[in-house]
Amino acid sequence: MSLLRLNLSALTHNAAKWPLPGKALLGCALAGLVFVVGDLVYLSPSRQRLHQVEAQEIALQQQVAQKTALAASLEARTHQLRLMQAKADELFSALPGESEMPGLLEDIARLALANGLLVENVTPLDQQPRPFYGVQPVQIGITGAYHDLAMFLSSLGGLSRIATVHDVALRREGKLLRLDLLAKTYWHAQSGGRSGQVLQGQPFIYDSAGLRDPFQRLAVQVDHLPGRPARAPDLARPRGVLETLAVDQFEMVGTLSRGRQAFALLRAATKVHRLAVGDYLGPDHGRVTAIHERSIELVELFPDGQGAWLERPRTLVLNLNS
């Protein structure tokens, strides 16, 4: 330590005798040393605080941008909220002020009678209170044909009162089908007893025309016989109503005789049609060629893809369950 102090004293004592370049170099070294020490002691903490402040400034600028965008869309959001509130109020006002169980039971009986169904049971269940509305479930069991049951469900959804259908179960019972379902009606629990008017939307109307009963047997088609060359059909001939339905949608339910002429009775959906030999059936230019007691035969025409036509026989058998 004393040696370092001695060298330093000697250095400062001899510095006055140094040439000008040496004095300048020594001054620069001392100035650099002072700058480095000042930077480490005073400037470095300030620089770190400056970086922190700049980062906070960037974060604040991002928040300001987000708040500005939110404020710009506030009017649109407020308008959307008002529309949603008005829609909710409109829906709640459509609910009746109290349970309409008697009216629902009357509607169920009326719809079942109109569609030719047999009501097996109608059991009202316990009411289910909700925060803003009440629910009244009803267990229903009815029996009938497939398309008649579908028409009943379609009509139930088009009632003037709000009713929904749940837990639908369908099973066969002999020649008919058994339908079990849970219907629910609703009322506004805080409406003060006033009855609103149900908003009628576009109702769904079930149309059985062109639809096949999936619980009935399909027509028997003789596919193993090859097509035979045939004359081209008259494409300008006006098509009949029975030619707009697929042959699979028909089932033979019986025959009818008038003198020597025999007729076949075919059912499509809920309608029964009478056909004689020579009548057309199906979209493939099908024509009845023979009528037997338990079946009918027809011939259909198909293009062979090369400009010619082929004829193919087909058979509809009697449905013994009809």
Automatic annotation (TrEMBL):
Transmembrane region(s): none
InterPro entries reported in the protein's UniProt record: PilO, PilP, Transl_elong_EF1B/ribsomal_bS6
Highest taxon of source: Bacteria
GO biological process, one term: type IV pilus assembly
Family matches, as Gene3D superfamilies: 2.30.30.830, 3.30.70.60
The protein, known as: Pilus assembly protein
